[in-house]
């Protein structure tokens, strides 16, 4: 089930990575991991002879680093912080050199992600604003264009569509939105999708009002045909045909809310959050999504009954209905504790992808200070 589980957990215990990890990212060759130990620093560890050794400490921010992403092609690290700043780090010989990105924010920067082509990155903030940053060769600096007056509260997560132009966001106003980030001179019109063919920067494609609580993590499927995001009401939402007339489903579960999601294939999603146990959601041949199982075998759903009490049955009837009228039974799992993670999982990152975009290995980190690698190829019971 786990690749390098004992190795990584032993390294955390031996090297005392952190009491808490805010976010993490991997180098292109996956031999180094960068994370924020819930302060204003980025620690980079390298795997040397089956042991993790600290090789760099990046110090430039003044407050907690809330987001980090490591580009796979250009080997650049981008960080954002509560200090309202962003830095792009370039490795020059043995040192990492920071370049300040002017975000023009008056509130904390909360999340960041490189675009698929890595010519842009998006920053969500507590200023109800999304910054789309790109590099200007003429002036030799990073600049940002802002998407303003679209969100009513903090932007908690951003996710790039595979076409490099569409961007999905979630917010504590309970909504998920999709925008165009087309920038003349940076993007081309041959994006391969009609949604991105004739749109201006910052144009809103759709606003999804499915969640009536804070909305957190959001992700696109490998093909970009399906969008998934989670809410603080212990529900996960799936949206197909994103555009003027989208079709949506929701799945309710009895466990604690999720914080982030990851498509491992077109029909399988991993959700992580406050429950500390990764959850697997799958879609059948009809495209109907439902909870499948916990990835951590230490936590199992009982097979004796669907519900543990009359209250839970009523809960399932009330919240287990999808927007298309399909029933998604709430699960009543046992809670033995002692799983791989011992506190809230806040970050899930893909590690290995197949040619079709299927994720076969990913990592999670959380408030327990652990980084855990999960390998789906070794799970015969999980079909991608």
Automatic annotation (TrEMBL):
InterPro entries: Apc4-like_WD40_dom (IPR024977), ARPC1 (IPR017383), WD40/YVTN_repeat-like_dom_sf (IPR015943), WD40_repeat_dom_sf (IPR036322), WD40_rpt (IPR001680). The keyword 4Fe-4S does not apply. Coiled coil: none annotated. It comes from the Eukaryota. One of its GO terms (molecular function) is actin filament binding. One of its GO terms (biological process) is Arp2/3 complex-mediated actin nucleation. WD repeats lie at residues 58-99, 148-180. The keyword Cytoplasm applies. Residues 25-115 form the Anaphase-promoting complex subunit 4-like WD40 domain. GO terms for cellular component: Arp2/3 protein complex. Gene3D superfamilies: YVTN repeat-like/Quinoprotein amine dehydrogenase. SMART domains: WD40 (SM00320). It is found in: Cytoplasm, Cytoskeleton. Keywords: Actin-binding, Cytoplasm, Cytoskeleton, Repeat, WD repeat. Its main location: cytoplasm. Component of the Arp2/3 complex composed of ARP2, ARP3, ARPC1/p41-ARC, ARPC2/p34-ARC, ARPC3/p21-ARC, ARPC4/p20-ARC and ARPC5/p16-ARC. Belongs to the WD repeat ARPC1 family. Functions as component of the Arp2/3 complex which is involved in regulation of actin polymerization and together with an activating nucleation-promoting factor (NPF) mediates the formation of branched actin networks. This is Actin-related protein 2/3 complex subunit. It comes from Stephania cephalantha.
